[in-house]
Design a protein that fits this description.
The structure is a single chain. It contains 14 helices and 14 strands. The chain is α/β, with parallel strands linked by helices and 379 residues long. The strands form 3 sheets. A 7-stranded mixed sheet has the order 7-6-8-9-10-13-14, sandwiched between helices. It has a 5-stranded parallel sheet with strand order 2-1-3-4-5, sandwiched between helices. Helix 2 packs across helix 12 (287-299) and helix 13 crosses helix 14 (333-341). The longest helix has 21 residues, at 40-60. The protein is globular.
């Protein structure tokens, strides 16, 4: 009897050896961003919700090749040292990739200290898209959205086409704002146009725009280009319109139309032009937008209105998911980097991403949206 039990155990062991192991792994990804601090209420939290909606939807559909995705959400408090600390900490864990860090100062520090090269962890998506954060190419950093320079180029072409000559740039006095001012100056010079008037302001809990408004009143520009995170952008629009200054305002995609409307009010936000680097999230004709709306309704908290910022977090997560699919099991950081580099002309349903080892900016899509009377973004 004892011998029969031994033979049965041996047979079961051999059977286990030959039967494929079918349990699935959990793929850990991280979102390191300001969930507290001066830009948390809009940027960090909105992108995080878009990411979470995408992951919930992917997991509900079976995950990535049967593997569920787990999100780690980490607050860097909009402090560069904290960002570096968290990235290095995650590198020692099972996290295979990071999504959408926010902050030009933080990412400038990450790049200067070669943190990503040290830890070899891929980062998909990045806010902002200023050129110093894109060039030279970092082998572990993948920009999904069109860069700031693409947006400035589109804005300047529009301005000059309609005959506007006197340009003022109101910008947050941080690296991405300063590089924006430099980009506008360079583009105007390339078109033989006159220099822009630079009007910086300091970011903080309370921003005093009195000096900026007085400078704009004196310079009397034909148009104001606003380079700012969303909430300060809304505050500027409110005070600018309250001061009865009439020149139109154009801003980059960071100037979320929803936030500008919420902070400045519908009447004052009306007519502000906002560059867009993703398709219209509310369009019924774009398959990706329809899918986003359906997933948002199902997985976002009740009574939450979807925005373009949510949409960016959602799309960026889908881009990462495409890389995870191509990396194969088990997913490693090294395999994921090679997989992301292979995403050639990938159409997500109305938004195309195109990466290669020599090209880490996935999209060049830029459009101009206008905030309408009912606070809808029209484009």
């Amino acid at each position: 009897m004892q011998e029969r039990v031994k033979r049965l155990g041996w047979a079961l062991g051999m059977l286990a050896f030959f039967v494929p192991w079918t349990s699935h792994a959990v793929i850990s990804v991280g979102h390191i961003a300001p969930l507290s601090g001066p830009v948390a209420a809009v940027d960090g939290q909105s992108y995080n919700l878009g990411i979470r909606v995408a992951i919930e939807a992917l997991n509900a559909r079976g995950g990535v090749q049967g593997n569920k995705i787990k999100l780690k959400t980490l607050d860097d408090e909009y402090k560069p040292d904290r960002t570096v600390e968290l990235i290095r900490a995650e590198a020692g864990k099972d996290t295979v990739a990071l999504l959408l860090p926010v902050g030009s100062a933080a990412l400038a520090k990450v790049l200067k200290e070669k943190v990503l090269e040290d830890v070899k962890i891929p980062v998909v998506g990045l806010i902002p898209g200023s050129e110093p954060l894109r060039n030279p190419i970092n082998p572990y950093l993948y920009h999904v959205r069109a860069g700031d320079l693409d947006q400035y180029r589109r804005i300047i072409e529009h301005i000059l086409t309609v005959g506007m000559k006197r340009v003022a740039v109101v910008y947050a006095d941080i690296p991405f704002g300063k590089s924006g001012m430099a980009a506008v100056e360079s583009l105007l010079k390339g078109h033989g146009a006159q220099s822009a008037t630079g009007v910086p302001f300091a970011l903080g809990a309370k921003i005093d725009f009195k000096e900026s408004l007085e400078k704009l009143r004196q310079s009397a520009p034909d148009v104001v280009i606003l380079v700012s995170p969303p909430e300060p952008a809304g505050r500027f629009v409110q005070e600018y319109r309250s001061a009865a200054l009439a020149a139109p305002i154009m801003t980059l995609s960071y100037g979320s139309s929803d936030t500008i409307c919420a902070v400045a009010g519908e009447d004052k936000a009306y007519g502000v032009a906002v560059a867009q680097v993703f398709p219209n999230s509310g369009s019924p004709t774009i398959p990706l937008s329809r899918r986003f709306r359906e997933d948002f309704q199902r997985f976002a908290p009740p009574n939450t209105t979807p925005t373009q910022l949510h949409y960016e977090g959602y799309i960026t997560t889908l881009v990462l998911a495409e890389g995870l699919k191509r990396a194969g099991a088990p997913v490693t950081r090294e395999k994921l980097v090679k997989a992301l580099d292979s995403l050639k002309d990938v159409d997500l349903g109305g938004f195309v991403v195109d990466f290669s080892p020599a090209r880490h900016t996935g999209s060049r899509f830029v459009d101009i949206g206008i905030i309408s009377k009912n606070c809808r973004l029209v484009f």
